[in-house]
Amino acid sequence: MKDLRIAIHDRKGSFSDRWIEYCKERHISYSIVNCYDSDIITKLKDFDVLLWHWDHGDPKAILFARQFLLSVENMGIKVFPNINTCWHFDDKVGQKYMLESIGAPLVPSHVFYDKKDAIDWIETTNFPKVFKLRGGAGSSNVSLIKNQADAKKMVKIAFGRGFRANASYFSDFSTKMRKTRIKNDYLGKIKRLLPSLVSIYVSNKMRAREKGYIYFQNFIPDNKYDTRITVIGNRAFGFRRMVRKNDFRASGSGNIDYDLSKINTKCVAIAFEVAEKLQSQSMAFDFIEDENSNPLIVEVSYCYLASAVQACNGHWDKDLNRHEGAMWPQDAIMADMLARIDTKKQSK
Ligand SMILES: Nc1ncnc2c1ncn2[C@@H]1O[C@H](COP(=O)(O)OP(=O)(O)O)[C@@H](O)[C@H]1O
Ligand SMILES: [Mg+2]
């Protein structure tokens, strides 16, 4: 593997922190590249691998990351995330079609691109329903719509001035502050969080308003938690996130239960099957359960909190055997990338 050329886009606080550590620990050489450079394609010509952990917090990346990464894949370079892994990222509307097309157990989801179609449906369906914008995290753009009248108000906004899509800084902020148990540390926390709050504020301002569509899911009642299963290759990591007090939403609550014995392994099996069908390199699934404990997917994502996955202290393989021991998801991603290239090189 000595002649392997690895390019990493370095974004502090992203998966690249650990990818760089991984290479250093194993004396694997790598180069830092800047995917925003206009001549990046020329610069990448002699590389075998490119890793770039871009996410919804960066409006610049959203403008071109998918198109760019697919172009790099077409040069014969192994990329993370590849297009199968990221085309549907931060896009719950896209995920609806994707999951329906392979018969995955998605929470029944409804999307309308015309005001009249939306109103007609609202007048015949039952409530409550869950309203979501196509993007967002930490439950920031998810709300319960209790009746027809409230749903119609949302339609008016969706086909009028539109919604401002919020990155999750307020929910994240309140969660992080709540979890600060040492009273005197509030100021310290605010100071540490300030730079990320400023960058989220700037990125929110850059985002266009969400309009011209409306998306609802059936409300699946009585879920006290959601189950987050993260599949990377032949590994599935799992934990449960408790819903907030007096709320139905778990995502962003910060209240995680790592007790693996409480995880419905049907979620693990479904996650493996769906990830394989979609040919995804890495995919986090959020599951809730119906009244018969059947898991239903609410959304999928290739971006997630790596430290929460690492804290799982074990994972399942595809035969649902348990393997003990913590692992950084970034290490698993990198190991899979290098293994694939190595096999390819050896077969030449
Ligand atoms: N259709 C639904 N019925 C009941 N609860 C839901 C439904 N959809 C989402 N939730 C709850 O709301 C949370 C946030 O929803 P999700 O679609 O995962 O949004 P986000 O992208 O903000 O994480 C989930 O973690 C889950 O607890
Ligand atoms: Mg979620």
Report what the structure shows.
- This protein has about 350 residues and is α+β, with helices and mostly antiparallel strands.
- The protein folds into 4 domains: about 5-80, Rossmann fold; about 110-165 and about 210-220, 2-Layer Sandwich (Dna Ligase, domain 1), CATH 3.30.1490; about 170-205, no CATH class; about 225-330, D-amino Acid Aminotransferase, Chain A, domain 1 (2-Layer Sandwich).
- About 40% of the residues lie in helices and about 20% in strands.
- It contains 12 helices and 15 strands.
- It has helices spanning about 15-25, 40-45, 60-75, 85, 90-100, 115-125, 150-160, 170-180, 185-205, 265-280, 305-310, 330-345; strands at about 5-10, 30-35, 50, 80, 110, 130, 140-145, 215-220, 225-230, 235-240, 255, 280-290, 295-300, 315, 320-325.
- The strands form 4 sheets. The protein has a 5-stranded antiparallel β-sheet. Strands 2-1-3-4 form a 4-stranded parallel β-sheet, with helices on both faces. A 4-stranded antiparallel β-sheet has the order 5-8-6-7, sandwiched between helices.
- Helix 6 runs antiparallel to helix 7 and helix 8 (about 170-180) packs antiparallel against helix 9.
- The chain is globular and about 65 Å long.
- The mean pLDDT is about 90.
- It binds adenosine-5'-diphosphate and magnesium ion (MG).
- Magnesium ion binds near residues 286 and 299.
- The site of magnesium ion has 3 residues, from loops.
